Amino acid sequence: VRLGVLVSGGGSNLQALLDACAREDFPAEVACVVSNVPTAYALERARAAGVPAVVVDHKAHASKAAFEAAILEALGATGVQWVCLAGFMRLLSADFLGRFAGRVLNVHPSLLPSFPGLHAQRQALERGVKVAGCTVHFVDAGTDTGPIIGQAAVPVLPDDDEKSLSARILVEEHRLYPLAVRLAVTGQVTLDGVRTRVAAAPS
Ligand code: GRF
Q1: What is the pTM of this model?
Q2: Please, which residues bridge with residue 135 across strands?
Q3: Ligand 1 centroid from CA 61, angstroms
Q4: Rounded CA gap, 131 and 10, in Å?
Q5: Interior/surface letters 65-82, b for 16+ CB within 10 angstroms, e for the rest
Q6: Half-sphere exposure (Cβ direction) of 80: Cα atoms closer than 13 Å
Q7: Which atom in ligand 1 lies closest to the alpha carbon of residue 86?
Q8: 13 known ligand binder
Q9: 119 is an active site residue
Q10: Cβ(15) to ligand 1 under 6 A?
């Protein structure tokens, strides 16, 4: 299965997917990486892995539709079948998502539905939760609102700050995302409304 990975930043989740795809037994390969940020380090990670890396700068397009059309062109040119958002900081339209008929995944650094949107780790600290974590979910037109495929929890420690908590969650993101991608692309995740039934829940 050919994956397209959309990025905006450092790309540590992209790296986790690249590493997983490099293993013989993993049922997917990263066919293309698209960044909306020209300087994203994630692009270096793609190049180092020999994966086509394309910049589609949202600032260089007159409209969201044109921006998304450029992304779709890059994904289409490389035969992408599933899209993984990995630190991608733009909202995608229902039209874009419809092109992939629900085959778009995202990783978010909170236990959704708590703390959607930006700075999720900071939101968790400010709310004083004792357990935080990450979620991999199908992407719908909302912000971090799609059906949940898997989650991983981490403790919030008394002396945690945004940096230490984010680092602890990131370790779990890197473990969870490839697991969830494997289940999704092999058809082991079925949808029942907003609930997913997963053959072997990635815990
Ligand atoms: C991660 O916490 C991810 O969940 C969030 O952005 C952070 C950085 O991701 N969306 P990456 O290192 O660019 O993959």
Answers
A1: 0.95
A2: 108, 151
A3: 24
A4: 25
A5: eebbebbbebbeebebeb
A6: 27
A7: 14
A8: yes
A9: no
A10: no
Decide if the complex's ipTM is over 0.90. yes
169 neighbors 187 (Cβ within 8 angstroms): no
Nearest protein Cα to ligand 1, atom 7? 87
Residues 54-104 pLDDT 10s: 999 999 999 999 999 999 999 999 999 999 999 999 999 999 999 998 899
The verdict on the CB of residue 107 being under 6 Å from ligand 1 is yes
pLDDT in tens, 151-199: 999 999 999 999 999 999 999 999 999 999 999 999 999 888 888 988 7
Give the phi and the psi of residue 77 in degrees, each rounded to 5. -65, -20
Distance CA 10, CA 99 (A): 27
Check: CB of residue 122 under 8 Å from CB of residue 82.
Answer: no
Atom 12 of ligand 1: nearest residue by CA position? 12
Asked if residue 81 lies in contact with residue 2, where contact means CB atoms within 8 angstroms, the answer is: yes
Catalytic residue among 61, 108, 119, 174: 108
State the DSSP string of 95-115: HHHHHTTT-EEEEESS-TTSS
**Binding site annotation covers 64?**
yes
Largest CA distance in the chain: 49
> What is the side-by-side strand order in the sheet with 53-55?
53-55, 29-35, 2-7, 82-86, 104-108, 131-138, 148-155
